[in-house]
Amino acid sequence: MTASPSPASSSQRPTRVAVLGASGRMGAAACRAVGDAPDLELVARIGRGDDLSAISEAQAEVAIDLTVPSVTADNVRWLVDHGIHAVVGTTGWTDESLTALRGQLAERTEVGVLIAPNFAIGAVLAMRFAEIAARYYDSAEIIEMHHENKLDAPSGTARHTAAAIARGRAAAGLGAVPDATEKDPDGARGAVVEGIHVHAVRQRGLVAHEVVQFGGVGEQFVLRHDSFDRVSFMPGVLLGVREVAAHPGLTVGLDGYMDLG
Ligand SMILES: NC(=O)c1ccc[n+]([C@@H]2O[C@H](COP(=O)([O-])OP(=O)(O)OC[C@H]3O[C@@H](n4cnc5c(N)ncnc54)[C@H](OP(=O)(O)O)[C@@H]3O)[C@@H](O)[C@H]2O)c1
C-alpha cells in the first residue's frame, strides 16, 4: 500500500484530479485530502447539475466519483469515454452495470477504473479475513450499521463481505448455513446475500460499521470494523488515485491494489 507519495514521485508533476460529488460528505473530505497531497492537484470540483466537460477542460487525469447510486454508472461511462481514469466509491453498482462497464473498457484498454465498496483499510482487511474464517465455521452472519442518510441497503461492503464468505465456504465444501427458521413474515432474519444473512441498521450518530459473526460448536468468532469519521476512507482513496493508471481495466475492491496474498 502507498499511503503517501514516494520520494521519486515528489519530483514529478502532480497528477491532475477531479472530484465528482465534491459538495457531499465524502466528496468534501476527498477534496481536502487531494488538496493536502503534494503529489496530487485538485483541478475540478463537480456537483449535481454541473457539466462533466469541466473535467476534460481541466485536463484531469483521474476522477474520483463520490456521488449517488443513480448517476455513478453514467458518470463513469463518460469518464472512460474521455480516457480519464476513475476511482469510484459510490455504491449501488449491479452485475448489469459492471458488465456494461467491462464491455466499454475492453474498447478503451488504456483506462483504469477502481470500484471500491469500502476505502477503509481495516474494512478491506476484514473482508479478506472473513473469507479465511468462513472456511472453518458452520454459521456466518453480517450486521452492517450506517448513518440514517445512507440511500442503499445492505451496504456495498456487506454485499462484498457476503460474497467473500460464500467463496470461503465453497472452497471448504460447506453447504447452506444451519437455520431452522420456518416462519419469518416480517423479514426478521434479514436479507440473504449469496446465502449469508445480512442485517442493516440505520442510526443517527453512526458513520460506517460492520460486524461479522462466525459460529461453530461451542465457540464464536467476531470480526468488527468501525469507521468513526470519513477521514478513515481517505488513505484508501489516495491509494486508488495513485495506483489506478497502473491498473488498466476494471478492479473491484481496493484489495486489488494491496498485497494481501
Ligand atoms: N467506498 C467507500 O468507502 C464509501 C464510504 C462512504 C460512503 N460511500 C458512498 O459514497 C457516496 C457518497 O456518500 P456521501 O455520504 O458523501 O453522500 P452525500 O453527502 O449525499 O454526497 C453525494 C453528493 O453527490 C452529489 N451529486 C448528486 N448527483 C450528482 C451528479 N450527477 N454529479 C455530481 N454530483 C452529484 C450530491 O449533490 P446534492 O447535494 O446536490 O444532492 C451530493 O453532494 C454514497 O454512494 C456512499 O454510499 C462510499
Strand order of the largest sheet: 2-1-3-4-5-11
Radius of gyration: 19 Å
* Main β sheet profile: 6 strands, parallel
Classified in CATH, the superfamily of the largest domain is NAD(P)-binding Rossmann-like Domain
Keywords:
261 residues; binds NADP nicotinamide-adenine-dinucleotide phosphate; Dihydrodipicolinate Reductase, domain 2; six-stranded parallel beta sheet; alpha/beta; Rossmann fold; five-stranded mixed beta sheet
Task: Walk me through what this model shows.
- Helix 2 (about 25-35) crosses helix 8, helix 4 runs parallel beside helix 5 (about 95-105) and helix 6 (about 120-135) runs parallel beside helix 7 (about 155-170).
- This protein starts with 6 loop residues before the first helix and ends in a 9-residue tail after the last strand.
- Helix content is about 35%, strand content about 25%.
- The chain has helices at about 5-10, 25-35, 55, 70-80, 95-105, 120-135, 155-170, 235-245, and strands at about 15-20, 40-45, 60-65, 85-90, 110-115, 140-145, 190-195, 195-200, 210-215, 220-225, 250.
- The chain folds into 2 domains: about 5-115 and about 230-255, NAD(P)-binding Rossmann-like Domain (Rossmann fold, 3-Layer(aba) Sandwich), CATH 3.40.50; about 120-230, Dihydrodipicolinate Reductase, domain 2.
- It has about 260 residues and is an alpha/beta fold.
- A 6-stranded parallel β-sheet has the order 2-1-3-4-5-11, with helices on both faces.
- It is built from 8 helices and 11 strands.
- A hairpin with a 2-residue loop joins strand 7 (about 190-195) and strand 8 (about 195-200).
- NADP nicotinamide-adenine-dinucleotide phosphate binds next to helix 2 and helix 4.
